[in-house]
Amino acid sequence: MRILFLGDVVGKVGRNAISNRLPSLIEKLKLDFVIVNGENASHGRGLSEKHYNDLINAGADVVTLGDHAWDQKETLGYIEREQNLVRPINMAKGTAGRGAALVNAKNGQQVLVVQGLGRVFMNPIDDPFLATEEAIAQCPLGQMADAVIVDFHAEATSEMQAMGHFLDGRASLVVGTHTHIPTSDHRILKGGTGLMSDAGMCGDYDSIIGVETDEPLNRFLTGVPKGRFTPAEGEATLSGVVIETDVKTGLCKTIAPLRVGGVLAEVMPEF
Ligand SMILES: [Fe+2]
Ligand SMILES: [Fe+2]
After folding, report:
1. What is the Å distance from ligand 1's center to 249 Cα?
2. Which of 25, 39, 175, 178 has the fewest Cβ atoms within 10 Å of its own Cβ atom?
3. pLDDT in tens, 60-90
């Protein structure tokens, strides 16, 4: 099975890049399943219902969130009925929505998508390792799930890599989101799990992590807020990772980065 994971969609240009490019990528790369991180899709803050539907209509099978999950208040409501929208699993008990979803792929196979939220340089939250492990134990790879994809939304590459090694042999792919910068460390671990520390963002890279440079730069220089953060509006780069899984085991056979459009050099998997 061939699966594409795309990192944080930032603002209108990120959404446009998904709508304009994802349908042809699905065809060209013969993708069976697509996961998109949508936590910054609505003006950089959260995900409105309309924008969630835009991502799904463009070809996303599952949309994941992150620490910005509730920036749009309406998400607390519509997440309850959207089975393919996944927020961090280690949020407080009773939080709206779900942290894991088992979803049908185009080829009829079943993909478990889980999201964890990191704790290094981030706000206090429950243990992401045990919460993710529990979700996978309830729906094991190669038994109830044909593929298991873990979006680990974290700040520190050390924590992301720890999650990869922790789940090695139990997930098809562990991929980080949240930093908005793609790493070039994609590889397959000894137990067969694909790992990439961060998928990067789907946004305008002529910016500071997707934000127009003026205000973040001002805050670094003076520490005094002058205005709001605004998503940059140049052409977005779609950034993520493609894996091929083994039909029987669900483990990772191939892993390759993908970057297309915008100011970053194009990187396209060769299949
Ligand atoms: Fe983000
Ligand atoms: Fe985030």
Report:
1. 31
2. 25
3. 999 999 999 999 999 999 999 999 999 999 9
81-102 in b/e burial notation, b at 16+ Cβ within 10 A? ebebbbbbbbbeeebebbbbbb
Closest Cα partner for 115 from 36, 183, 40, 58? 36
User: Which ligand has an atom closest to residue 153 CA?
Assistant: 2
Q: Which one of the listed residues 43, 51, 68, 165 is annotated catalytic?
A: 68
43 is catalytic: no
The pLDDT score that the predictor gives to residue 29 is: 98
**Alpha carbons 192 and 185: distance in angstroms, whole number:** 15
| Ligand minimally distant from the alpha carbon of residue 38 | 1
Residue 31 identity (one-letter amino acid): L
Instruction: Give the tens place of pLDDT for each residue, 204-252.
Output: 999 999 999 999 999 999 999 999 999 999 999 999 999 999 999 999 9
Q: Which residues, 6 or more positions from 138, have their beta carbon under 8 angstroms from its beta carbon?
A: 144
Rounded to the nearest whole angstrom, what is the distance from the C-alpha of residue 130 to the centroid of ligand 1? 23
* Rounded percentage of the chain residues whose pLDDT exceeds 70: 100
> Please, are residues 26 and 54 in contact by the beta-carbon 8 Å criterion?
no
Ligand nearest the Cα atom of residue 202: 1
Could you count the other beta carbons within 10 Å of the beta carbon of residue 197? 24
Cα(123) to ligand 1 centroid in Å equals: 14
Residue 143 Cα to ligand 1 midpoint, Å, equals 32
How many whole angstroms from 212 Cα to the centroid of ligand 1? 15
* CA dihedral (122, 126, 130, 131) positive or negative: negative
pLDDT(111) > 90: yes
What's the DSSP call for residue 23?
H
